[in-house]
Each structure stands twice: as C-alpha cells, then as structure tokens.
Amino acid sequence: MDQQLPEHMLYEVQPTKATADAVAYGLLQAKGELTAYPYKYRELPENEVRIRITYTGLCQSDALHSRGLWDPTISYPSVPGHEVCGVVEALGAKVDNFQIGERVAANPQRDFCGKCEFCVKGNNNLCPTQNGLYGLDFGGFSTHIQVPSMMVFKLPDHFDERRGAPLLCAGVTMYAPLKRHGRANLRCAIIGIGGLGHVAVQYAVKLGMIVTAFTTSFHREAEIKGLGASKLSHSTDLASLKKEEGQYDLVLNTLYIEDEEVFKQQQRLTAQLGTYVQIGAPPSKVSFKIDYLYIILNQIKVCGSIIGSYGETQVIIISKINRK
Predict the structure, then answer these.
(1) What pLDDT, in 10s, does the model give residues 240-284?
(2) Does the structure show a pLDDT above 50 at 1?
C-alpha cells in the first residue's frame, strides 16, 4: 500500500485487500480524499446482522460530519454513509427475523433504547441514548457493515435499491414533516430542489398539497414540474421572495442560508397560523437568526425535523414511489 494506515479501535487494519474481510473508504483527516481501508471484521455480536453492501447513498451530512464541520473533535479514520442497501451475509446468534441472502437496508440510526418516553411512543429517532450508524463504527462507504437487527429493514421485491438508497435518509427526512404538518390542499413551499427538495416535492404532491418549488435551477423547470410542482420561484432573490410573502401554509427549508436578510425572507413565505420547518443543517460555525417579530405577529409555528422513526422509514420502504 502507498501509505501507512492508522490503527482503529474496532477494526483491525490490514496491509492489503487480499488479507482483508472487507474494505472501507474513509477520510484519514478532515481534508483530503477517501482512502481505501482494508480491515478484518470485528466479532459479530449476537444481536447484529452483517450486510454485504450493494448500494450506498451520498448525503450532505456525510461531508459535514467526516470533514469535521459539525464536530471538529471526531476520530479518524471516518467512514461515512448512512443510506445503505445490501444482502444479509451473516447473523448473530440471537437474530431470528432475517435470513442469509435476504435483501435489507439500514438508515442513519444504529440503535435505540426501546424504553424511554420517545421510543415507547414510536419516536425512536429522538431517543437520547441512540447511536448514529457511523461514528466510531464504519458506515456505508464500505463493502460490508454490521448493524443491530432492531435497525435493519427488509426490502420488498418492488424496491429498487439502485435508485432507492437515498430514501433511507433524504426520503424519510422529507416525508416525516410533510406527513406530520401537512394535509390535502395545503399551500406548500419547498425551498431548495436538490437531494432533499426533489423528493419533498413528490411526497407533498402525493399527500395532496399544492407545491411551489423554490430554486435557482430554472433550467430544470420542466424536470421539476414533472415531479409535480405547480410552479417555480427563486429561492434566494430578495425581490422575488418578497412577492411571495405570507402565501404558504407550510414551508420546508432544505437550505442553510448565511445571508441574514435572505433567510428571514424565506421565513416570511409562511402564512399566518402556518408552519415553518427548518431541515437544512449548517456547519457548526454558522448561526441562524429567526425573524422573531414576523413569527410572533403572525402566530407561526417554527420547528425542526430529524430523519424519521423506524415506522416512518418502514412506510417509505414499502410505498411504491420507488419501483423497479
């Protein structure tokens, strides 16, 4: 190998791929490119599933985490990837609800306690003792991954993992707040039509909402309207945003905007008694400023949303929005 790879607390690094059980691709430091990291499996715990990975999505949070932009104290090597599809290769001694060779998936959450008030109510994504899919453990940028069976999902025959892996994070991240706060005939603004927003448009339309896509990519107008958006509007132009002020019952913002005036004007898209949901998460050094006066005077609900629960993820997987 061209360089000496660092040791890892959980995985035994190997000198070559020939002697390895698996190969991960991660960052050895905050800056740089992904590096191949051949390693031996750690012992398979009795409650875990070993998955041979076939497809993994790329999420913006992978870069924010592994580049140290959320937490500069993370440990390296860092192997991200939390939108994972694959095939069961091995089962822990007490796992009896999966079979070798079965198609499965894993999302951004590795585990949860199952006992706290959030878990009991089905909100396991808010469990205070949960662990993310990667951190000290390697994530989905690898040939294999081991995940507790409680957070492994069976894939139905119709699920196309070649296109569907991003639904395990991006998909449920948008579906959950739309289902929670939306309803048929609601005027809905989706700000940012990228990896999150293009999925949000489709789910909002399927839930019966009237959707405006806020974007800078007007060259993609036909494509975005093909997803179901009724119209397009500019996401960062102040004059354009002001014309749309107060017109939307539900606003989902997938962006983080450092320009204070633009960000405030995006909030002002929300109608009286409407709901504004912030989903785009910035690097830790970026601070958001809420337009408190507009929000107070118009009795607007402001909230955030983080991925989705096990149940909400299951809905995404079994729905036929992503068919072979």
Answers:
(1) 999 999 999 999 999 988 899 999 999 999 999 999 999 999 898
(2) no
Cα 108 to Cα 29, 43, 58, 288, 306: the distances in Å are: 22, 22, 12, 24, 10
Exposure string of 266-287, with b = 16+ CB inside 10 Å and e = fewer, is: bbbbbbeebbbbbbbbeeeeee
Residues in the chain: 324
The dihedrals phi and psi of 133, each to the nearest 5 degrees, come to: -60, -40
Q: Using the Cα atoms of residue 294, residue 299, residue 300 and residue 306 in order, give the sign of their dihedral.
A: positive
CB 92 within 8 A of CB 173: no
First to last CA, the chain: 39
Q: Which residues pair with 250 in a beta bridge?
A: 188, 275
| Dihedral (Cα; 314, 318, 322, 324), 10-degree rounding | 130
Separation CA 56–CA 144 (nearest Å): 11
Q: Distance (Å, rounded) from C-alpha 203 to C-alpha 318?
A: 14
| Start-end of H helices in 165-269 | 170-181, 197-206, 221-226, 238-243, 260-267
Nearest-10 crossing angle of helices 197-206, 170-181: 40
The type of residue at 52 is R
Instruction: Lay out the sheet containing 22-26: strands in order across.
Output: 12-13, 35-40, 22-26
Q: What is the pTM of this model?
A: 0.93
Closest to 141 measured CA to CA, from 31, 58, 199: 58
* pLDDT tens-place string over residues 139-193: 999 999 999 999 999 999 999 999 999 999 999 999 999 999 999 999 999 999 9
Rounded to whole angstroms, the Cα distance separating 106 from 150 reads 10
